[in-house]
Amino acid sequence: MSPLPQPTRFLLLAAGAALAGLLAPASLSAEETFDFEALRFQAQQLASRPYAPPPPRVPKELLQLTYDQYRDIRFDPAASLWRRAGLPFQLQFFHPGFIFDHTVQIDEVDGRLARPISYSPELFDYGQNHIRSLPTSMGFAGFRLLYALNKPGDELGSFLGASYFRMLCRGAVYGLSARGIAIDTAEPEGEEFPAFQKFWVERPSAASKQEIVYALLDGPSATGAYSFVIVPGDDTVMHVRAVVYCRRNPGVFGLAPLTTMFWHGKNTNGETDDFRPEVHDSDGLMIETGRGEWIWRPLTDPTVISVAQFSDQAPRGFGLLQRERRFESYEDLESAYQLRPSAWVEPVGDWGRGSVRLVELPTPDETSDNVVAFWVPNKLPAPGSPIQFEYNLHWFLKGFEPPGGHAVATRHGRSRTQEPDLERFVVDFDGRDLRRMPGDPEVEPVVTVGQGAVLVHATAEKNPYNGTWRVAFALRPDGRGEPVELRCFLQKPPNVLSETWSYLWRP
Fold first, then answer.
1. Is the pTM of the predicted complex or chain greater than 0.90?
2. Domain 406-505, CATH 3.40.449.10 — does that match?
3. Between the chain's N and C termini, which has fewer beta carbons within 10 Å?
């Protein structure tokens, strides 16, 4: 297994954010009683004081390592926490260095007793690197969890960099990431990256089917207490509970953020000079609104920063999905994009009024995460007051589709021979009920076109070759070149047959 996950734009930015343990070196041997209420109180106390960036703990020689030199530092599997005890979960640690310029402290919790885990060079194989003795108080860059997901010793997930974490389900490979919080994402003044400063990991029993991780978050604007109850499987579920305190209320306060990469797909026909038909960790944002409407927004690689908001009250769920699961759509034996997991946020309780916000950034290639989705509440309490929220975060390859039809492909272009002045969109819908339904002239498309273009014609027909339904429509732009919001779905009056396809077309 690689000691360093795929580099991403946000991870590189976040690596410079504050990451440090809160215990002084002298207290590393101390044991403490611990529970979530103690963690929440610690976050509240931190928020009552001005933010103090943690002191640097990583020696300069580690920060000067190249990418390849850093990758040559590997954790010794024999030193995995809980391995000798034969427990179902194991813990391994990431070494500081390269872009990981600050560290976190990690405690093991047994019952209600928390014991610090000290950094030691003996835990690592340094390969060809010649590094002097390092202090045991330095801490770690992060950690990974192991579990017999497919076979013994499989990696289940990791926490590494600012408040980033990511998980796997059975049969999946690493793709998109999640974060504890998003602050001022895509705002002109720049994004803030609060960090998980310290972790507590519960020692599992021999019969444990779940692992529990606690984290303390701190940053210039906010602090927070988090717990993650992780249950691995075909659908790996994390129950996330958080209490956040703002020192000041930011312009954008994002809950349950998901971060992914989209470079090109069926809906993009720009020149990428890439041999693969599609390259993306996720291909769309799906939302189930509080009213029960399902929305699908295909992702794009825009030429300028794009921000979309979907207003709602008491959302039932949202997530970034990888719907395209055919190898032939990617033709990449190494990256295996068809096996990248989807992630679905299922709020627990009423999240009130707000919006799902989708941010898309231009990216030159696949090495940069360029898409973020999160929930933004309309109102925040006064600074210092608790902001409490819970959600289940699902990581999966299959499942979580609308009860009706869902969009499986979006294509856009022009015809050189027929009505070449029109912009054409083709949206394919699939689903169990749609496949069972024979061609029916009463099935009709409902297409809505925003300002900037007019709808010329639209059709819906059954595809006799694969059983899907295709909506094809043509637009005539008004020449101003402004972005146009598009929506469409299938209906057989009075019944709606599919989710709502939503798209921002930039002429």
1. yes
2. no
3. N
